[in-house]
Write a structure and sequence with these properties.
The protein is an alpha/beta fold. 40% of the residues lie in helices and 15% in strands. The chain has helices spanning 15-29, 45-50, 76-85, 98-108, 125-128, 140-148, 173-183, 204-220, 240-247, 264-269, 285-292, 305-308, 323-333, 336-339, 343-354, 357-373; strands at residues 2-9, 33-40, 55-56, 89-92, 112-116, 134-137, 156-158, 191-195, 227-231, 254-257, 272-275, 297-300, 317-318.
Amino acid sequence: MKVLAHLLALEPLGGVEQCVLEDTEALVARGHRVAVAYGHDGSLRPTYEALGSPLGGPFAFSMDTRSPWRMVPAYAPAARWARSLDVDVVWLNRFEHILWGHAVARAARRPLICTLHEVPMLRFTRVVGRGVHHYTAVSDHVRDAWIAEGLPPERITTVANAVAGSAYAAAGVPEREAARRELDLPPEVPVVLCYGRLIVEKGVLDLLEAWQVHRRQRIDAGLPVGVLVLLGHPDPTLDPLLREALTAVPAEELRIHPATRDVVPHLRASDVVVFPSRMPEAFGRVVVEGMSTARPVLATRVGAVPELLTGGMDDLLVDVGDPRALGRRISELVDWRRDDPGLGAACRAWVERRFPYTDHVDRLEGVLADAARRRPVRGAR
């Protein structure tokens, strides 16, 4: 099967880019060919080239919502490239680029599949969504939101996100010690990790306030406070509250590292991962990544996250915007290796049971293959 995928950039900008890359790797490993149309070049180019993926771009994907059809001529270069590839199916990964997807799929005379990674953000969903062969949604939360906007339920299949267990392998104490030496972190104190976009909407202010609650509890109990590791790009110059909250944390208790595609060393070095988002998360990939490495992930009850943390993991949820509760739970969990030594293995087993990566790839491959079997014959009227 020959698939044409699309990416806003050949850069690890966020969950969408990471998911498309991992799914491309899995599809190529199963003998399929995945070409990638991109909007901006970047550091992932060598990875896709090593997979043998044809790369085309940079292409224009954007849509003027005031006059949507004005952008159609700008899609012509991508349409010509897609037609030359003779792909079996076009696979769109951002609904906001739906007109680009329609233009390219029609030029190539191939069916269009769209993976819904976000809740609806555009008007005219029912109109511009016509003509898509099938949709996949990364969670039931996302699926329900798009149905409410007018997409037909029978044309949306939930294909929950998942991570390859080999990439996010369970890491015990020896791996934790090695990762801390690599990252220059203290060997014996608790380490709490938060990664992603370090912005107010992602709950970073709540986490910093929660850290103050945690440190007071630890000091009162005569226990080491530990280190909070933030992995991302905070910009305190844009938000005085964020700048003030960062400076309130003692320097020896805070590490800030730039965003990186390879978060695994930081996960191995941590004891607890925190996902304090205030946004209506479409999935919550951090939850699955962290727990796959055999450590608990504290997360907020928002978007699809409660859909993930069921089956005995509900106590890892806290209410949105409740830093006191978050701080207390951090303090309770950082010593889990002593207090609940089976928790790490239970987290890993939970991921393997609830989000097996093979099932994820099977379902995605099945949707793409079904569309490919129904593709129009080139040149037919």
